[in-house]
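Fill in residues.
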């Protein structure tokens, strides 16, 4: 295991595609908030020094209170869970988190609050995978053909065997991801994942094969699938 790894969990979105008044990370899945599932998976990792949970400004106090009440499974090996405020875009939220990491933090894992099903094996594999290149992400080969579309017309069809769908966790050497985000801010780059900024800086990013069950809960049917999946896992255990 790599020392001094901190985890940033972006949870400051408002869940427009899910709809409803409560942001999806706080919606119940099998009786507890999605965020609770996600944090429970992360605290299973030994030797993580800190989890930094980034929520919308209006949710900071409430989330601190929630997290302090949660039992995140035993034994809890992570030293502490901190809660701080995010920003307008996901990248703003992660950038805020990067600025709050302790000096001694060497590695940064970034994992979406709304991916409750990343397995310990996957989290560990991405973590280990970052050691060589300094940047490693989970991704799965696309089973669908992907086309680029502009103004309602197809402009390109990508070779399916080269298309990978990107997930989190993503793990980086802190220096690399911080430099990439600094450059993204100064150049106005936009990106929906963290690795894209590292790529644009010209640094290598390696891939570990993710899990098709490691979904990002995005729309109401994802939540239905998630309920079904948990029920299936639990009936398998009985
Ligand atoms: N996120 C964040 N800060 C933002 C936007 C998103 O921390 N300003 C987080 C979300 O809370 C989520 C993760 O980034 O855990 C992935 O984003 P996404 O699935 O797009 O969530 P939302 O932005 O909340 O959903 P939507 O795009 O449908 O509004
Ligand atoms: Mg979003």
């Amino acid at each position: 295991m790599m020392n001094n790894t901190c985890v940033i969990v972006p949870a400051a979105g408002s869940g427009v595609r899910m709809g409803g008044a409560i942001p999806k990370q706080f919606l119940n899945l099998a009786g507890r908030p999605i965020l609770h599932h996600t944090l429970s998976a992360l605290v299973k990792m030994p030797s993580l020094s800190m989890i930094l949970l980034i929520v919308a400004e209006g949710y900071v106090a409430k989330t601190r209170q929630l997290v302090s009440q949660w039992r995140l499974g035993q034994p809890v090996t992570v030293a502490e869970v901190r809660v701080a405020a995010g920003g307008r875009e996901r990248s703003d939220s992660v950038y805020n988190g990067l600025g709050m990491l302790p000096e001694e933090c060497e590695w940064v894992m970034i994992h979406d609050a709304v991916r409750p099903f990343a397995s310990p094996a996957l989290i560990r594999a991405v973590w280990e995978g970052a050691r060589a290149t300094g940047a490693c992400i989970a991704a799965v080969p696309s089973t669908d053909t992907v086309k680029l579309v502009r103004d309602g017309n197809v402009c390109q069809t990508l070779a399916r065997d080269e298309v990978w769908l990107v997930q989190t966790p993503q793990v980086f050497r802190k220096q690399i991801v911080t430099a990439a985000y600094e450059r993204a801010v100064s150049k106005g780059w936009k990106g929906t994942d963290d690795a894209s900024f590292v790529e644009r800086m010209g640094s290598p990013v390696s891939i570990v094969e993710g899990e098709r069950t490691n979904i990002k809960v995005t729309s109401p049917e994802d939540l239905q699938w998630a309920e079904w999946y948990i029920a299936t896992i639990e009936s398998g255990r009985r």
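Residues 220-237 form the longest helix (18 residues).
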